[in-house]
Amino acid sequence: MKLKRKLWITVISISIIIFCIVMTLFISTANMDYGSNFSNSIDYSEMWTNKEIMVIVPHQDDEINLAGATIKRLIDNGNNVKVVFATNGDFKGLGTKRIKEAVEAVRILGVNSENVIFLGYGDRWEETKEHIYNSDDNKIISSYIGKNETYGTDKYLDFRSSISGEPSSYTRGNYKNDMKDVIEMYFPDIIFAIDFDSHADHKSTSLIFEEAFCEVLRENKEYNPKVFKGFAYKTAWKAKDDFYGFNLESTLIPEKDSLINKNYDLDVPQYLWSERVRLPVAKEALSYTQNSNLVNKSLKAHKTQKASRRTVNIVNSDKVFWERETSSITYEAEVIASSGEFKYINDFKLIDSSNVNDIKLIDECVWIPDNEDNDKSFRINFASAKDIEKLVIYDNFSLEDNILESTIRFSDGSEEKVNNLNHDGTKTVITFPTKKDIEFLEFKINKYEGNNPGICEFEVYEKNESKETEYIKLILDNENETFIYRYTVDNEKEIPLNLYSYPKLDGILGVENCNISTNNDNIQFKENKLIISDNIKPGKYKVRVELKDNTKIFDEIEIFIPNKLQKGYIKLTQEFEKIIKKIPGKIEGEFYKIKKLILRE
């Protein structure tokens, strides 16, 4: 009886293993990417080709969360991409392993190992729980695993050791200086940097970057790169599992319950979801199955994190960011105020935290004049006389504390009356005809509500430049505004379309501003919809959209009408892959049960 039971257990175990092997072979040999029968003019755009680009993230795997599918496309377009890791991700003592994993992961995306930079700081800190970001500038602290200076591996040195021969002690001041120096070593044209995620190291990297970057701007007046901030958690690692289907979804707005404060769109209160910058992803990052997706292959390199389990959360048809303008002349200006912490007015930071370990804490980022201050004003003295056309003002994001009326007085004697700054802290943009030779301006609060009226950031621009469209993308005219590359038709006869453009213009740029053509008479564009005729045969068709006033800016997509066999094959392969992805955990559980049964015998 005992022998039969053991034999039965063995047969079941072998059967499970054989089934897994067969299905894995089936999935691994199935080519389920979207192909390459689509294109976009961004690949030829002056703005997005042949540039120096830097990606700044806290941990090894965050480069994929933040910009993985974008990195590949940027490299394919001739850009030189460097990836900077602020920490070694060594909370569990796996720092050297994670460094090696990161080099392999970004290699899969096309980044050469010499373009991978490790600042070498700790992941979490000693028992006191004081984070390096909130410690004194010169205080040396120990990481969670007892390190007190930056490190790398024999092959991949930490940044400071690689340029000076000596590591940096773990101090806040060194952390900021290393961040500043790595930016100034390369002066990238475009920077993608992590934003204020719920993880303390993510917050710290975001804030240290902004602090260091502000110093770079102050000391290098002609340097004005494009800066895009983005999240690793809410729009990637912890995003909705929405991978499977005929058409890959675009990044979804985070659920309100997941946010620091449900009153805002995102964890940075000043950001609006509608103002996100959406970048198209690489062709290799578009697929029906995880196994055929380049991002999944890159995630697999992060073995210690089991990162490929998050492919279904991370992979979308776009990557989203929030752009920060960098040409404000306030960074080089002197600010004085009637009272309050006026350093917050021109520090590039929209938010801050006196304790980044506290998930919900946002503070020490708003100029708030004293209650007994009857003046409640500040003055910005420019380094030299400036011509000014635009102001961008961020009110205190507290919904209870709002500036209702204010006056901006300029050195030429002119004034601008400003009523009702955006009360949610989002930017209020004020434009006017050029004010010549302005030496200073004064901002005064005249009327307010709440106890703490104030300003998070005050930006001044010499030019109110009308930005031209750099690229466009056809999207589904649905709630998620899904980016389209190859659209797989599932019995639809009408496909509602609209257009995304970067930059987003003040006027509406939609499909009505474009020329739209198809390569088959059975697909017609009418009333902002693709109309598919009943006479159309299964196959692949093209739809092209061009701007009427600049036909060099275009997007070309594929409409794929599968036959029943092709449609079934896609569904079957996806279902098989779902099963395979669940099996490792189930097998682990089953073997545990089997082990208990055998031991019981």
Task: Summarize the helices and strands and which ones pair or pack.
Elements: H1 2-29, E1 39-40, E2 52-57, H2 62-76, E3 80-87, H3 95-109, E4 116-121, H4 159-164, H5 172-186, E5 190-194, H6 200-219, E6 226-230, H7 233-237, E7 277-280, H8 294-300, H9 311-314, E8 318-324, E9 334-337, E10 377-395, E11 402-410, E12 415-419, E13 427-449, E14 455-461, E15 471-476, E16 486-488, E17 494-502, E18 514-518, E19 523-526, E20 529-532, E21 539-547, E22 550-561, H10 564-600
Parallel strand pairs: 2-3, 2-5, 3-4, 5-6, 16-22
Antiparallel strand pairs: 1-22, 6-8, 7-8, 9-10, 10-13, 10-14, 11-12, 11-13, 15-17, 17-20, 18-21, 19-20, 21-22
Helix pairs in contact: 1-10, 3-8, 5-6
GO molecular function, one term: hydrolase activity, acting on carbon-nitrogen (but not peptide) bonds, in linear amides
Keywords: Membrane, Transmembrane, Transmembrane helix
Protein name: DUF7402 domain-containing protein
Distance from N terminus to C terminus (CA atoms, Å) equals 11 Å
Mind describing the biggest β-sheet?
A: 7 strands, mixed
Evaluate the radius of gyration: 27 Å
Low-confidence stretches: none
Biggest sheet, spatial arrangement of strands: 4-3-2-5-6-8-7
The share of residues in extended strands comes to 25-35%
- On the 0 to 100 scale, the average pLDDT is 93
The count of DSSP E runs of length 2 or more, i.e. the number of strands, is 22
Looking at CATH, the homologous superfamily of the largest domain is LmbE-like
Summed up, the helix count is 10
Instruction: Indicate the CATH architecture of the largest domain.
Output: 3-Layer(aba) Sandwich
**Protein structure class:** alpha+beta
* Highest CATH level, the class of the largest domain: Alpha Beta
CATH domain fold name of the largest domain: Rossmann fold
